[in-house]
Q: What sequence folds into this?
């Protein structure tokens, strides 16, 4: 059944590997297979790769979107056997080895799902979650930037003090790396930037709240790093609420499990993620947090020629009973090994099981403040040296020399001038569609 002509992909006579997703895993796997006797087809609904760890800096005006995005066609330019199509996969038909996309059908011999993750609102209804901002894409980062700045503009024009308070206040739900980094950036803006931009507003009245349901920030890191992060974020004037669950959001009021209410028109949800799965796979392949259960070779449970990588993959073991952490190093290492294993599989050679090498973890809280846990957890670092290490690692992980250079220069400028130059409302955000992922 030759359905792939809908996507105008030539038949080279080679077996076809289709990769869904142009994230860290998708790009790494494609590079690994550039000498393989395979036709590699990458599908993604965007034509660019997004460096998600720095989305919060786009949202707070510290970086331009293009500095953390990289064209996928350019990333695949040196892979002669690779083809890219901008398409959204709607359904998988594993019995027929066919994908249904928004631009047509495509057949495959091997399929790799590397779709990453999406926001998990847990038990909140769609009506409530639609009022909250997200931070998983460039579009959402730009929406958040515009929304916050528009609220400050509105605050200038209102005489109602209660309304002004709700426009200035910002609530962040979730004390993981994204929540902590975003809170620190907003606290820094409140202290050094916003009073200069809006001298008519009293930013001493602006409150940045960070809510965390557990008893510590950065719970995936060491206790020492969690304590340092808590101290650092408080130094930026952020109100940290530990052991506090957000139970609702209605009429611009955040409701908490301790009975208290916080008035704000800006709620940013960073409290959880889940796998961005695709319909059609065997029900037994579904694991916790909507991730796909895979074996030690990243093969999806119940499917012989379908693999999953990165955030969407849940490889359960004694060491990792809930699967590996949903971070870029896992995705890159899995993709690197799968590339080797696919070459071995085609030669009927024995494949190698995946073993994650933990390179440690890190998070920044703002200027001169970050925490780092080295592998093994025995060596930890905080403060200015950790902040420099965080910047170095993130710059080196960016794709493309131009992006590395622009980010580095931008950070140097911001450091010496206490200024974020990209406080631009280029496309006014439609408040009635809060939380949407409008196209650029």
A:
């Amino acid at each position: 059944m030759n359905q792939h002509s809908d996507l105008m992909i030539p038949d080279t006579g080679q077996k076809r590997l289709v990769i869904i997703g142009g994230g860290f895993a998708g790009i790494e796997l494609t590079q690994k297979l550039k000498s393989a006797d395979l036709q590699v087809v990458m599908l993604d609904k965007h034509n660019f790769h997004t460096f998600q760890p720095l989305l919060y800096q786009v949202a707070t005006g510290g970086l331009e979107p293009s500095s953390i995005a990289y064209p996928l066609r350019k990333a695949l330019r040196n892979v002669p056997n690779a083809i890219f199509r901008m398409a959204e996969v709607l359904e998988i038909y594993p019995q027929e080895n066919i994908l249904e996309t928004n631009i047509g059908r495509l057949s495959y011999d091997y399929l790799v799902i590397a779709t990453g993750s999406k926001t998990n609102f847990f038990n909140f209804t769609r009506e409530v979650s639609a009022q909250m901002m997200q931070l998983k894409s460039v579009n959402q980062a730009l929406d958040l930037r515009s929304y916050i700045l528009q609220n400050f503009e509105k605050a200038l024009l209102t005489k109602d003090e209660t309304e002004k308070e709700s426009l200035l206040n910002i609530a962040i739900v979730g004390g993981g790396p994204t929540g902590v980094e975003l809170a620190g950036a907003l606290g820094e803006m409140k202290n050094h930037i916003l009073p200069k931009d809006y001298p008519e507003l009293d930013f001493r009245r602006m409150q940045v709240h960070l809510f965390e349901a557990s008893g510590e920030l950065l719970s995936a890191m060491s206790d020492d790093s969690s304590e340092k992060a808590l101290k650092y974020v408080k130094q930026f004037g952020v109100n940290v609420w530990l052991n506090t669950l957000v139970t609702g959001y209605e009429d611009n009021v955040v409701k908490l499990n301790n009975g208290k209410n916080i008035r704000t028109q800006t709620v940013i949800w960073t409290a959880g993620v889940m796998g961005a799965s695709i319909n059609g796979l065997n029900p037994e392949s579904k694991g916790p947090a909507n991730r796909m259960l895979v074996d030690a070779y990243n093969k999806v449970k119940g499917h012989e020629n379908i693999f999953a990588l990165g955030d969407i993959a849940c490889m359960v073991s004694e060491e990792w009973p809930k699967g590996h952490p949903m971070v870029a190093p896992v995705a890159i290492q899995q993709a690197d090994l799968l590339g080797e294993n696919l070459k071995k599989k085609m030669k009927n050679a024995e494949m190698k099981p995946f073993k994650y090498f933990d390179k440690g973890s890190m998070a920044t809280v703002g200027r001169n403040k970050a925490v780092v846990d080295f592998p093994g957890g025995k060596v930890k670092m905080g403060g200015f040296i950790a902040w420099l290490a965080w910047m170095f690692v993130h710059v080196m992980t960016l794709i493309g020399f131009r992006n590395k250079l622009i980010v580095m220069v931008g950070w140097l400028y911001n450091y010496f001038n206490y200024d974020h130059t990209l406080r631009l409302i280029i496309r006014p955000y439609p408040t009635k569609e809060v939380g949407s992922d409008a196209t650029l």
Observations:
- The two ends are 37 Å apart (CA to CA).
- Residues 432-440 have pLDDT under 50 and may be disordered.
- The domain at 4-45+87-119+274-346 is CATH 3.50.50.60 (FAD/NAD(P)-binding domain).
